[in-house]
Amino acid sequence: MTIENIAPKKERKSRKNKAIVDENAPLLPKRGEEVGFDEFNGASFTGAVFNLSTTVVGAGIMALPATMKVLGLGLGITMIIFMAFLTEASIELILRFSRAAKSSSYGSLMGDAFGKYGKILLQVAVLVNNLGVLIVYMIIIGDVLSGTSSSEGHHAGVLEGWFGEHWWTGRGIVLLVTTLGIFAPLASFKRIDSLSFTSALSVALAVVFLVITVGITVIKLIDGSIGMPRLLPDVSDVSSFFKCFTVVPVLVTAYICHYNVHSIDNELEDSTQIRGVVQTSLALCSSVYIMTSLFGFLLFGDGTLDDVLANFDANLGIPYGSFLNDAVRVSYAAHLMLVFPVVFFPLRLNLDGLFFPSSRPLVLDNMRFALVTVGLIGVIFLGANFIPSIWDAFQFTGATAAVCIGFIFPAAITLKDRHNIATKKDKILSIVMIVLAVFSNVVAIYSDAYALFKNANTPSPRE
User: Using one digit for the tens of pLDDT, what is the confidence trace for 57-67?
Assistant: First the structure.
């Protein structure tokens, strides 16, 4: 994942004369070297907002109502807002230090601060995070369309509900058709701005999901079937206190978009707009997150599942409930299909930068571009067919790679301060980010491990 040089502010109003730093193997070519590209004069502000918003709003939104069940509505919404401000601050640090270092990417910024191994560490973190996230996307799509079976029974997918059980409604076939018909074509674009239309559509589909959820909740509020939700966490012992920290990896994952900021900044017609793009995107996504968490938790209460989409498998107790269930699930599955290529874009660039650091830009080598794309999609497809749980994936990526990308790396770059531009406020903020990130995620991992160990040693009712 690389971008072009970030020149001093007065020289950054246009992309047309921008040069490339070949030393760090940039994967986007100079304007004059865009062989086979249509004439491209820069991405618009709106297109950049949609691309960044699509990066943010992925499958994590489905787990946010469950965080309200743990934290309560008041503290949960407060944490969503707090994480949005913390994310904006960390991205601002990345962009400011990138300008000072004239770095061409997040990876090269890490390389500037910590050398070759710093850059490799960032690339590995992005690989782990994005690969995990994309596998989760595909798992959810398979669950929605084909259904899923667990110890609690079989949950029919949309296709199975419409057409019955056939070989072509099976999980493997549905995911194969989706991969070949949707993921592969969309992953073939070489510029992220080419995905601005599908990004806008994906945001619209997320809004459709939200509108339907709000509508159902309002109907049930009117008929009095929804009670007063908890505003604060239910803390009765030490175990329940530590459980509150298990939501932190989910909240961190929900806002991770740092790996795409440079790519979007690189393609902006006016790169001075990037901070406005980030702030607008985070404001939009935070609004969607708050509304989804609020109405999702109001609707299902303490019965909210880890993946709230699974709650829409039951009878809602309202007219046209079955139709609305299908509309919610299909709209969000379609949303994830369109988010997939935006998250895939930096995954491919980082993998290429990690294994082929001295090669020419990826977009100029069609054979390497095709091989990397096909190989990654194949790994994701296999992972989605053999990894059953999305919650475990979120906990792992959120507590490891995501927290490093979003907070620990930006804070470490600021504290290193190779170009002597960090203020006292920046350094205090960086220390706070590292302490919060490390403490909360260590506690979250411990709490999850303790819960797994406890469950493993608890006899089942059948024994």
Answer: 765 677 788 88
